[in-house]
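Exercise 3.2. Students should predict the tertiary structure of the chain below and write it as structure tokens, then compare their answer with the key that follows.

Predict this chain's 3D structure.
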Amino acid sequence: MALTHFNDSGRAKMVDVGGKSATERVARARARITMHTDTLALIQTGGIQKGDVLAVAQIAGIQAAKRTWELIPMCHPIALTEVDIAFTLQESPPAVDIEATVRCVGVTGVEMEALTAATVAALTIYDMCKAAQKDMEIGEIWLLQKTGGKSGDWQRGESP
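Answer key:
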């Protein structure tokens, strides 16, 4: 498969998506932040001094999806139609799972927006809780699913 982000001189370029058809596009991504049981309990009970950890992380994730094109050099600005961030608190091992779903009707996909949203939500949880615990771990960041576009639908576990 040829890489599309290089010009004839071998230098980086933004891909021309002008000739593509607008379709509904959806992407879901996941991130996980693991922590001590005590830190998870503080999140659950509202005991973090900075405020409501998950509410702030949700807003941060949404804002990150909207600004992905400013962070990732070859991403196009996209008119997003929906960004949703869901959190699942896990007892064993103690963790917060973050799932970001991003939608648009456009000519390019929203995979990077979903990945950015989940990652920034995890980073925000870290920032909100770092006074309670500095050795939290952010990991397991991956694309779960994407739909729409020329390449069609894809789900984690399938070949590209």
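Discussion points: The mean pLDDT is 94. The two ends are 11 Å apart (CA to CA).
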